[in-house]
Amino acid sequence: MSSFSIAWLDLREGADFAARDKTLATQALEWLGQATDPVSPDRIIVDLGAGTGSSLRALTKLGANNIVWRLVDLDGKLLDEALRRHGKQYLIEDYQADLNIVGELPLTGTHIVSASALFDLTSAAFIDALIDRLDARKTAVYAALNYDGTTTWTPAHPLDEKVLAAFNQDQRRDKGFGPALGSACTGYLQKALENKGYTVTIKPSPWQLGAKDQPMLNELINGITAAVNEHYGLTESELDDWKKFRLTNIAEGNCTIGHWDLLALPR
Ligand SMILES: C[S@@+](CC[C@H](N)C(=O)[O-])C[C@H]1O[C@@H](n2cnc3c(N)ncnc32)[C@H](O)[C@@H]1O
């Protein structure tokens, strides 16, 4: 299962929705409601790295309506899937585009720029260029589920910390945007948006995974092992040992993985 396959995005969506800070999401929608113009009631949300439309589904569940959704993603298959699922119910404009070409992102008239599980993949240069394009008087930013580098497992294994350190190092690898910010992304984004004049609030949105999430945990453990199996100083037998222990304990154990949500509102 690849990191952005439909199957993986589907598998994580329940945990993502549960993790999202609902106060922050609701605040974003309230701000959007206040921006509503009775003559032209549609509001525009541009969802960056939209995948199959997870942000659309989450915000709709929380009350979003009359939205023009501009979904932007490099992967046409994911956008097709978003259209297949929602094209008849919602106003969707799909843009198959590389986010790195920031100058061409369809931001004109945007009320909210949203993203979920995206900014930890991106770089400081990308965030700077994106924020440079935003009108801090008119466009809000809602960025959910940004990984923060923390993971706790129950029961514990002696190699948990070493595996996590290796995984966090891998998170800084170039993921297509230049050196990735990984767990530093929320802090970087917050500061950059504050410097631009926004009022920024951040709230924790950890994944709380347990017995009900066995298929997702299975993928996660395999994914972590695959990510750190070279270059990070863990021997094959150490990793094997860790992976076997983790897979054996999926049903009884649990796992918390830290993320943060961020809302930046015009002053
Ligand atoms: C972790 S997934 C999150 C998808 C979706 N936001 C969600 O929460 O389910 C990251 C998304 O970013 C997209 N992506 C990655 N690099 C990109 C790039 N350079 N330009 C546009 N989209 C990109 C991927 O195709 C993928 O859909």
From TrEMBL:
This is SAM-dependent methyltransferase. One of its GO terms (molecular function) is methyltransferase activity. The keyword Methyltransferase applies. Keywords: Methyltransferase, Transferase. One of its GO terms (biological process) is methylation. InterPro entries: SAM-dependent_MTases_sf.
